[in-house]
TrEMBL record:
SMART domains: AAA, LON. It holds the Pfam family Lon_lid. The lineage of its organism: Eukaryota, Fungi, Dikarya, Basidiomycota, Pucciniomycotina. This is Lon protease homolog. Residues 363-381, 503-534 have a biased composition (Low complexity).
């Protein structure tokens, strides 16, 4: 049949996503995002001449073949037709084409059938065409010629792609087997266009006449449109358009009306219309047969819509009935309360007792509803079932409250809230609030009956020590403190067991006394002969409260992991609470129940998560809590939690009941103590975790870090090995830090590099049959530089110190120390003194004090020719601290500044591998400084073998430093600046004073500047 419009040859084929179907005379909007659809539109626009009547703007829209029609080679629109109409009882089509709620609509089943699964919703992407081109066998043999009437490009924010509006023209048929899957998009040749006839023509003799067919369509369509107007969400404009087409119904417009109705009806289980129905009617070419079968489909759709409407109306009626019942129940309760109050005031029985109800007994009623509730006027069906479920739920909740081991205060609150819950209707908002509160009370461990018992074995402490030693090397101070606490708990547990055995030995004679003398750990409650259950014996609460430990030190030293190891050694639950960035007090103490969305704080949440009353709770990063704001001060909220004298009655704002936290082992961690408020710090027992020395790092890397990285990178011990020399090189040249995190990252980089080498070696062996380069599992020092790059730190020069340069010790914060080179130079000038290197006011004052002391003792040091001469009047001194982008401050560089200036003026270098710290005064005294442990550990990691320290810091060295560091570093303790200079230079003060004398000193000083300028 010749088309009434130009059709391009070949015709571009656009596949429609399921369940989209375009009918002639209808519009369809699609969101195109996939590559093949965008290429199709781009090709159509390039071939177009710009005219709306251009043949290039006509494309073919083909739907996907539904599962019900797969395997059918012939459709009802073919020449032979079908002897039995689809949908008749017994026909194959009737067995395959079923409503959507009877078909398997699971996405996985559709993918197994080869369908493109696309969900249609309200967003733009729901109408997107399938992501990949479907197989030609999945395409329907019939489609609709359509003209592109509108094209719009979307921005990236709107979802990108194109919005195309298509106008259906006529049905067409083609051969899907002739499509080329390798083409950018499908094109079909030899298109057969099927235009609609001017009127209905009846070919089979058995078909009804035209008048009867049009009348049946009119009745079905009119009834369906009325149903859609009341039950469907179709826009009113669509309803008016359908009524307009229906008013002009005739034999010539009957097929168009059917297509309009099919396009308007959505594919949904409630509409009774399936994708197979639309595709089947699209492929029915005979207009009379299509209208005949459409009448049957429309009738089924109308019945489905009416059924959905009846169900929705029934649900709304049930909701209204329950709301009315609730209002009447509230009125009835108010009337009962008024009657009881009047009867009480007049001193007579309640009138409710006359009609079968009175007081709380009336609440039970004849129905015998448990929990003091009665289903008054419950409607049959859904309402009655809901009431029964609610009563069962309340009965179960009441049993849980009775069996829970509450504290006395919590027990009273739980019983009171349970009574309130029974009186509150389930429809009210307060019902859910009370229920959540009771569930929270039930989930919190209140008493020692829910605690984890401690082992009574004799080797418990020894096993705990072994567990801590296996997991962490070093950290002797914290291990010692934890084992002390475990030993006390162990002895206390023995005393408790002995007291319990003594109680059992004195066996009571009466049954009542036997019930009272039940073991504290027993949860069963015996009954006396009268049948009443006595109150359970309160569990034994240890008098020794858990300490509040604060582990502070640099990152990566094992503060968090040792808390976990302690919990495992004790057999207790471990919960971690991250406090970094917490700014709201309610996160610690919880929200008050008056607020919407109130919840308990982090402490109660941790106990609920652990499920026991004595877990190990880690308060991580306690030094990084936010400051006080309009949300409260979280540091102040922690005061009660971390006070051993007060946390036995901690009260969360949400619970409103005292909670015993005395058996919880709180372990806080911090990198620095500067940001912790003094009242909070005073409540904790601070234990410092210093950095590791080289030997400790080697042991940790060998025993823990290297095996961990080998497992993470799928390497066996035989495939990767590092000697102690290589590990030491890795520690000293690449990872000079207090902890071991950088060391672990460096070992991970080495393991990944060796994994690549191993994989390439295996691939080459498979490809070249033995010609691959052999894999070497041993890592050498040369491999380190190849994998990790040049060393970050080089060893100090072995040829001695440099003139005018001294090595100081600095504390860098967060538990880290470091060495600080102080450089000086001398230039001709007017005697000015310059300081550079981002210095603070304290260290600048130290530099001026050091220069003043050197000037005052210039003659004794051999700098000036006599006591009245000024050796600095024609020279400018410049002191520089390297790493100028890093701010430096603190009272600990005075000795190093004096040594650097004296070395500059005398031209004598200080001792090699010597570092010093300490502050100086104008009187020449060396005062003590802080951070000795961190400074000495950093100097030891940097290869320093000799340290000059104030005499007052000797006790810090003897008590805090590891024995290995004390053995490998020589300590010189000084009280005055003269002693410091004597220890800093070869030959001591004698070498400095031996070269004194006017011009000679000046020449030596000028020579020092000359040498320094070339360094």
């Amino acid at each position: 049949m010749q088309p009434q419009f130009p059709v391009p040859d070949p015709l571009p084929i656009l596949t429609l996503p399921e369940p989209s179907v375009l009918f002639p005379g209808q519009l369809l909007s699609l969101h195109l995002q996939t590559p093949h659809t965008l290429k199709l539109v781009r090709a159509v626009l390039q071939d177009s001449s710009g005219s709306p009547q251009s043949p290039a703007l006509v494309i073919g829209c083909v739907p996907l073949k539904p599962a019900a029609l797969k395997g059918d080679n012939a459709t009802e629109g073919d020449a032979q037709g079908s002897d039995r109409a689809a949908g008749e009882p017994g026909s194959d089509a009737a067995e395959r084409i079923r409503p959507a709620h009877e078909q398997g609509t699971d996405d996985d089943q559709q993918r197994e059938r080869g369908l493109q699964v696309i969900r249609l919703g309200t967003d733009k992407s729901s109408n997107a065409v399938a992501a990949d081109k479907p197989d030609p066998s999945d395409l329907f043999e019939f489609g609709t010629l359509a003209r592109i009437v509108r094209l719009e490009r979307l921005s990236t924010q709107a979802g990108s792609g194109l919005i195309v509006v298509l106008s259906g023209l006529a049905r067409f048929s083609y051969s899907p087997s002739a499509l080329d899957p390798s083409a950018p998009f499908y094109t079909a040749a030899a298109i057969t266009v099927h235009n609609e006839p001017s009127t209905l023509s009846l070919s089979p003799a058995s078909a009804p006449d035209t008048t009867t067919l049009v009348a049946a369509l009119r009745d079905s369509a009119t009834s369906l449109v009325e149903t859609l107007s009341t039950t469907s969400t179709l826009p009113p404009l669509v309803i008016r358009r359908l009524r307009g087409v229906l008013s002009r119904l005739s034999p010539s417009t009957a097929p168009a009306l059917l297509d309009a109705l099919l396009a308007a009806l959505p594919v949904h289980p409630t509409s009774g219309l399936t994708h197979a129905d639309k595709v089947r009617l699209l492929g029915t070419l005979d207009a009379a047969q299509r209208v005949d079968k459409g009448v049957e489909v429309l009738g089924r759709a109308e019945e489905a819509l009416k059924l959905a409407g009846r169900i929705e109306g029934r649900v709304e009626e049930g909701q209204k009935r329950r709301q009315r019942e609730w209002a009447l129940l509230q009125q009835l309760m108010a009337i009962r309360q008024e009657l009881e109050q009047l009867a009480k005031e007049e001193g007579r029985p309640s009138p409710l007792s006359i009609i079968g109800g009175g007081g709380s007994g009336a609440a039970k009623g004849a129905a015998g509803a448990p929990g003091g509730r009665r289903a008054l006027g419950s409607p049959p069906g859904i309402g009655a079932g809901d009431d029964a479920d609610e009563e069962d739920d309340l009965a179960e909740l009441e049993r849980r409250v009775a069996a829970k081991a509450f504290s006395p205060e919590a027990k009273c609150v739980a019983v009171r809230e349970l009574k309130r819950l029974k009186k509150t209707p389930p429809q009210g908002a307060e019902h859910g609030v009370i229920r959540n509160y009771i569930d929270t009370l039930l989930s919190v461990p209140w008493t020692a009956a829910e605690a984890t018992p401690l082992e009574l074995s004799k080797d418990f402490v020894a096993l705990a020590r072994k567990k801590l030693d296996d997991d962490h090397y070093g950290l002797d101070k914290i291990k010692k403190r934890l084992l002390e606490w475990l030993a006390v708990l162990r002895l206390q547990r023995e005393h408790q067991a002995l007291a319990h055995e003594t109680t059992l030995a004195a066996a009571p004679s009466s049954p009542t006394e036997s019930a009272v003398a039940a073991p504290p750990s027993s949860t069963a409650t015996a009954k006396d002969p009268a049948g009443t259950a006595p109150a359970p014996t309160p569990p034994f609460t240890p008098a020794y409260r858990a300490p509040i430990l604060l582990l502070h030190g640099p990152p990566g030293t094992g503060k968090t992991s040792i808390a976990r190891s302690l919990a495992e050694a004790m057999g207790r639950k471990f919960v971690r609470i991250s406090l970094g960035g917490v700014r709201d007090e309610a996160e610690i103490r919880g929200h008050r129940r008056t607020y919407v969305g109130a919840m308990p704080g982090k402490i109660v949440a941790a106990l609920r998560k652990a499920g026991v009353s004595n877990p190990v709770v880690l308060l991580d990063e306690v030094d990084k809590i936010g400051h006080a704001s309009h949300h409260g001060d979280p540091n102040a909220a922690l005061l009660e939690v971390l006070d051993p004298e007060q946390n036995n009655s901690f009260e969360d704002h949400y619970l409103g009941v005292p909670l015993d936290l005395s058996q919880v082992l709180f372990i806080a961690t911090a990198n620095s103590l500067d940001t912790i408020p003094e009242p909070l710090f005073d409540r904790m027992e601070a234990i410092e975790l210093s950095g590791y020395v080289h030997a400790e790092k080697l042991h940790i890397a060998r025993q823990s870090l290297l095996p961990k990285q080998q497992r993470a990178n799928a390497l066996s011990p035989s495939q990767l090995s590092l000697s102690d020399d290589v590990l030491l090189r890795l520690v000293t040249s690449y990872t000079r830090e207090a902890g071991v995190r950088s060391l672990e990252r460096a070992l991970g980089a080495v393991c990944r590099a060796k994994a690549v080498e191993l994989a390439e070696s295996a691939d080459e062996r498979d490809a070249a049959a033995g010609g691959a380069k052999a894999y070497a599992p041993e890592v050498t020092e040369e491999d380190l530089e190849r994998i990790l790059g040049p060393p970050r730190w080089e060893e100090e020069d072995e040829d001695g110190g440099r003139v005018g340069v001294a090595t100081g010790l600095a504390y860098q914060g967060s538990g880290n120390g470091g060495i600080l080179h102080i450089e000086t130079t001398l230039t001709p000038g007017t005697g000015t003194f310059s300081l550079t290197g981002q210095l603070g006011s304290v260290i600048s004052e130290s530099a001026h004090v050091a220069l003043a002391w050197v000037k005052a003792h210039a003659f004794e040091l051999g700098i000036a020719p006599d006591r009245d001469a000024n050796a600095f009047d024609k020279r400018d001194v410049h002191v520089h601290f390297p790493a100028g982008a890093v701010k430096k401050d603190g009272p600990s560089a005075g000795v190093a500044l004096v040594v650097a200036i004296v070395s500059l003026m005398r031209g004598i270098p200080p001792r090699a591998h010597t570092a010093m710290t300490g502050e100086v005064t104008l009187r020449g005294l060396v005062t003590p400084v802080g951070g000795i442990k961190e400074k000495i550990l950093a100097a030891h990691r940097a290869g320093i073998t000799r340290a000059i320290l104030p005499l007052a810091n000797k006790r810090d060295v003897e008590t805090d430093l590891p024995a290995q560091v004390r053995a490998e570093v020589e300590f010189v303790y000084v009280r005055t600046v003269d002693e410091a200079l004597d220890a800093a230079f070869e030959g001591g003060l004698a070498a400095l004073a031996g070269g004194g004398g006017g011009g000679k000193a000046g020449e030596r000083g000028h020579g020092a500047w000359d040498v320094q300028s070339h360094l």
